[in-house]
Design a protein that fits this description.
Deoxyribonuclease I, Chain A; 12 strands; six-stranded mixed beta sheet; about 260 residues; alpha+beta
Length: about 260
Amino acid sequence: MKKSSFYIFVVTSVLTLYPWGSTGSAWGATGQAGPAGAGELRIMSYNIRVGKGMEQAQSLVRTAAVISRERPDIVMLQEVDSATARTGGINQAEELGRLTGMHAVFASAIKLGSGKYGVAMLSAEKPLSVRKIPLPGREEARVLLIVEFRRFFAASTHFSLTEEDRMESVKILLKEADRLRKPFIVGGDFNALPGSAELEVLKSGFSLLSDGKTFTFPANFPDRCIDYIFISNRFAEKFKVIDSSVIPEALASDHRPVVVVGTF
């Protein structure tokens, strides 16, 4: 079977086994997550490298298959293209939403030719509001995407390669956590190692939900952890982690996805 046919088969099979319905939502009439189980919330953060795998082949169908088999309720995505020449003019967030049956939101960080590049979020539940906050990045502009849902806020971000910029970004996250009146869940590629100064400062306002130890990059032979999922401290005790894992996907991107399952 050809690779492209295989990936289409995988996505179709997953969506058949775990249908989200015609609305693209995994949430039932009671507001509980369907595929994840009553009261559970499945959170994924994934730097997809614009769908480009470790073997340099590009396939959003493959990316969607990686996402769908984890049955997430929300997915924070980083390194996402929209209408760029290098990825065929596709709005990648919308395409991944179509392939996974989820709602899609995109936030641009930089203009790239005729298109844009930034972060995105997929969700089973329809967003109530969306906000984009610029973040510092001297090598390239960065962005924080905040999406409001009925019971919580979720954010996707991709921090700078520069420590000073990351520290300033942390300060912005802390201000948002102090301002928001619902649980605030943040996932992303923080480009920071466990124990780094910026992550220690972040922990003054956030609690780590992912294990923060298992290596996430590079995907084929990971030797460091730079991808994390956090929740604002004032709501951390209400979120009970059931499972936290780094998915051993070594091909679809140069990062491995991080997944947390828990209950409010």
